[in-house]
Amino acid sequence: MVINILAIGDIANNVSTLKKFSGAEIHLITFPESKFGKLTESKGQDSFDSDNISEQVKKINKIKKNYDLCLVLSWNGARLAYLCGLNYIIHFVGSALRVPPFINNPKLDYLSNPLPTLNYFERDFYKKVLDNAITCVTSTQDLLRILKKYYEKEIKFINILIDTTLFNEKIKSVEREKSKFTFLSPQRIGLAKGIDIIWKALKLCKSDFEVLQVEWFLGQRTDEEKEINKKLVESRPPQVKLIPVIKREEIPRFYAFADAVIGEMKRGDGSAIEKEAVYCKKPTLCYYDPKIKFSFEDRLIPSVFLPHSSDPKELAELIDRLVESAEFREKLVKDEYEFVKKVFDPHKDASRWDELFANLQARHTSIIRESSNLKLRIRLLFFLLANRFYLKKMKRNLTR
What is the pLDDT of residue 374? Predict the structure, then answer.
């Protein structure tokens, strides 16, 4: 029997990729702001017609009985599933859990000031959103550590899915001029991605090359974040050429165009970028903490990605070796490709999702967790009042 999944929201195409490899039937509804986003697939997807939360709740309530379980990404998706009284799984990716909305004065380690804080009632609401998830799933070691601090029920670790139908060595290159060895740096500009480390390294390099850096930014929520990103752009090395945000379907063609790829240099357990690039058979530099091991056939194996530290000097030496040595490039991408195929096989990872769906469906016979319409209406009213109070407070602060 096919399991029917209602998915709400998508981040970095996690759900759209899962749809391609899973045996479940997944209906994805995206939020209006991502419907025409360059970085998220929109083909064949449903979307909310309005940003109004009450209208979104009405839409979910009309169709929820057609599904067995709910899968959400982002706090917006989780909030909506909770307001509709569903049995839902939260899949945490990106920075959503690093600054959770139920924390007072959420702080990022690279900022001097905390991010804007929700009021007490909204913080309490979002903690209930997390607590009411039937399970949580994450794909990185750092998010797993954070989640264990806040969530006491079952946590599943499933690797991020790489869309090998898009990212593979058969992709044709984008047509553009190339006069020298070219790196692609597709991650966002921001301290959490290690852009400062990359640019310090570039200033130490001795070889001749160009870096195509996508001009999109990590964190624009406060004036401090905007100022940091502005200074990063202004201090970029001469090798860096800024290019516009790339549409998702065009990203593989840019991988094919590049001679090598530079990924994240800060967190230590990677992201989707380096795996996508390696599936396109491009040698890739991405910092992996050697203490972090990866599961393969009931054993733990180390990553083969380089560098093993976030030291700009080490990165500069590796960049020069990639530029100057074809032998080094060939060996590196061979090792990386074998590692990625072993550990990040989308078919195997999708089967883990299917197993999770089957186990949860057996334990929860319906997607509907809360059947009392009165209770759900009170829940929605409480949230709207708390949210309006927060917005009024923010407006007063802005007009002072």
Answer: 85
In terms of DSSP bridges, do strands 46-47 and 69-73 run parallel, antiparallel, or are they unpaired?
A: unpaired
Q: Residue for token digits 């549409």?
A: 247
Choosing among 1.10.357, 3.40.630, 1.10.10, 3.40.50, the CATH entry for 4-162+348-398 is: 3.40.50
- pLDDT of 43 reads 59
CA distance 122 to 145: 24
What was the pLDDT predicted at 295?
Answer: 86
Angle at 57 between CA 361 and CA 91, to 5 degrees: 45
253 and 259 in contact (C-beta within 8 Å)?
Answer: no
DSSP 8-state class, residue 85: T
- This prediction has a pTM of 0.91
Q: Helix, strand, coil shares of the chain as percentages rounded to 5?
A: 45, 15, 40
Q: For residues 310 and 194, is the Cβ–Cβ distance under 8 A?
A: yes
- Can you tell me which residue has the tokens 């990359």? 198
Predicted pLDDT of residue 116: 83
Q: What topology does CATH give the domain 182-343?
A: Rossmann fold (3.40.50)
Tell me what pLDDT residue 115 has. Answer: 85
As beta bridge partners, residue 231 has none
pLDDT at 255: 98
CB atoms within 10 A of CB 65: 9
Query: Rounded to whole angstroms, how far apart are CA atoms 306 and 326?
Result: 16
- Each domain of the chain, given as residue ranges in start order, spans 4-162+348-398, 182-343
Nearest to 149 by CA among 107, 95, 103, 105: 103
Are residues 63 and 84 in contact, defined by beta-carbon separation less than 8 angstroms? Answer: no
Q: Per-residue DSSP letters for 267-310?
A: SSB--HHHHHHHHTT--EE--B-TT-EEEETTEEEE---B-SS-
263 contacts: CB under 8 Å, gap ≥ 6: 187, 270, 271, 273, 274, 277, 284, 285, 286, 287
Ordered mean pLDDT values, 10 residues apiece, the chain (400 residues)? 93 90 95 56 74 93 96 94 97 86 87 86 94 95 91 94 96 94 94 94 98 88 87 95 92 97 91 95 96 87 94 98 98 98 96 98 93 85 74 39
Cβ distance 246 to 137 under 8 Å? Answer: no
